[in-house]
Design goal:
Length: 350
C-alpha cells in the first residue's frame, strides 16, 4: 500500500465515505466496478475545472491536483454519456464535477472535451482493502415494510435534462413549507451532485437525500431491481408519516432508461399524490403529455419547467390542455399550494 499525498480532495460522489477511511492506494490490477474509489491526478483541464466536495463547496482544480474519484456511468444529453471502462491502465475522463470518472462515449456539441485524470491506484483502507462507496450506505430505514397511509409524494419529472425539474421540485418544497407543512426531499436517479438537493433544503425541506446517500455515484445502467431498491429505501427512510410531504425528482427525461423503469413500477405509481411535468418549451410539453399518457398511462397534475417562464409558451399550452401551469421562478405560492394539497383530480387534454 502506498501513501497518499497530503491535501487530496474527496468529492461529493464519495459523499458517504469518511476521510479517515482512506489510508492509502494500491495497484490497478482489479476490474473496475461502479463505486470503486480511485486515487488520481488531474492531467489536463477540459469541461470541468472544479470539484464539488461533500459540503457543496466548489474547489478549483489544476493539472497536478490530487483527489479520490469514484467510478460510475453518466447519462447527460447536455454533457456526456460515459461508462466505466474495462481497465484503468490509461487516462480516464472526469464525467461530472462531483468526481465521477469513466470513459466518454459521446458528448454534446455544447461542451468541450472532458478533463483528463491519471489513475494512480485504487484507494484502500488500513488493511489494504479497496474502498467502494456502496459499502458506505448511510440510508438505514428503521422499518422494512411500507405501511399506509404514507407521506404524500410530489413527483417532478420532465422531457429531458435541464427542463426545469429541480426548480419545480424546489418550488413545491417552498410552497408547502410556507404553509407549515413538513417536507422531505429526494432525488432518486441521476449523477451525483449536491446542488439540486441542497436547493430543496434551502427551500425548507427538513431532510434531503439522493442515491449517493446509498453509495451510488450514479444510477445510469443499474439493474431495474437496484433502481427500485433506491426508491424504496428512500421511501422507507423519509416518507413514513402520513402528515408530511415527500418531494421527489427523477433525473433526465421520461424516455431515459431508469426514469422509464420507475414510471412503469407499481411501487412508484401507487405512491404518486401529485405529478409535476416539466418541459423546456410548449411543444415539448405537448409531445411529452402524449408520451406520458400512451407509454405510462399517466396524466400530470401540473406543468412547469423552463416553458412556464414564457407567457407565449403558456398560451400555446392552454390551446391544448387545461392542466394548470406554474412558473417555478415566479410562482403564486397560494395557487401552487392549492394544487399540491388538494385531493388528486385528473386533468385532461383538450
Amino acid at each position: 500500500m502506498k501513501k497518499l499525498d497530503k491535501g487530496f480532495r474527496i468529492p461529493s460522489a464519495a459523499y458517504t465515505l469518511p476521510r479517515k477511511a482512506v489510508k492509502g492506494y494500491t495497484d490497478l490490477d482489479k476490474k473496475p466496478e461502479i463505486g470503486d474509489v480511485v486515487y488520481g491526478e488531474v492531467l489536463s483541464i477540459g469541461q470541468h475545472n472544479s470539484l464539488e466536495n461533500g459540503e457543496g463547496r466548489i474547489h478549483t482544480i489544476h493539472p497536478g491536483t490530487k483527489a479520490v474519484f469514484v467510478l460510475g456511468n453518466r447519462y447527460a444529453p447536455d454533457y456526456y454519456e460515459g461508462l466505466i471502462p474495462n481497465s484503468l491502465n490509461v487516462e480516464i475522463d472526469l464525467l461530472a464535477r462531483s468526481g465521477v470518472i469513466g470513459t466518454v462515449l459521446s458528448k454534446s456539441g455544447k461542451v468541450i472535451s472532458p478533463t483528463k485524470i491519471k489513475p494512480l491506484g485504487y484507494a484502500c483502507d488500513k488493511s489494504g482493502n479497496i474502498l467502494n462507496t456502496k459499502n458506505f450506505n448511510i440510508i438505514k430505514p428503521k422499518v422494512t415494510e411500507k405501511k399506509s397511509p404514507r407521506a404524500k409524494m410530489i413527483l417532478a419529472i420532465g422531457t429531458a435534462m435541464n427542463s426545469g425539474k429541480s426548480a419545480a421540485a424546489t418550488a413545491c418544497v417552498y410552497s408547502l413549507t410556507t404553509y407549515d407543512k413538513e417536507v422531505r426531499a429526494s432525488k432518486v436517479t441521476g449523477t451525483a451532485s449536491l446542488k439540486d438537493i441542497l436547493s430543496m433544503n434551502d427551500a425548507g425541506a427538513e431532510y434531503f437525500s439522493d442515491f449517493s446517500f446509498l453509495g451510488y455515484p450514479s444510477t445510469y445502467m443499474l439493474k431495474e431491481s437496484e433502481v427500485e431498491d433506491v426508491f424504496n429505501k428512500l421511501d422507507l427512510k423519509y416518507a413514513n408519516n402520513k402528515d408530511k410531504y415527500w418531494v421527489v425528482e427523477f433525473a433526465d427525461g421520461i424516455n431515459q432508461r431508469e426514469t422509464a423503469m420507475l414510471l412503469r413500477s407499481e411501487e412508484v405509481r401507487k405512491r404518486i399524490h401529485k405529478l409535476i411535468f416539466c418541459a423546456a418549451d410548449s411543444f415539448g410539453a405537448i409531445g411529452g403529455l402524449e408520451i406520458l399518457k400512451r407509454k405510462f398511462d399517466l396524466v400530470p397534475d401540473a406543468i412547469s419547467g423552463v416553458c412556464s417562464s414564457s407567457p407565449l409558451h403558456i398560451k400555446e399550452l392552454s390551446e391544448y390542455t387545461d392542466i394548470p401551469v406554474f412558473n417555478s421562478l415566479d410562482m403564486d405560492v397560494k395557487e401552487l399550494y392549492k394544487i399540491l394539497s388538494t385531493p388528486r383530480k385528473r386533468s385532461k387534454s383538450k
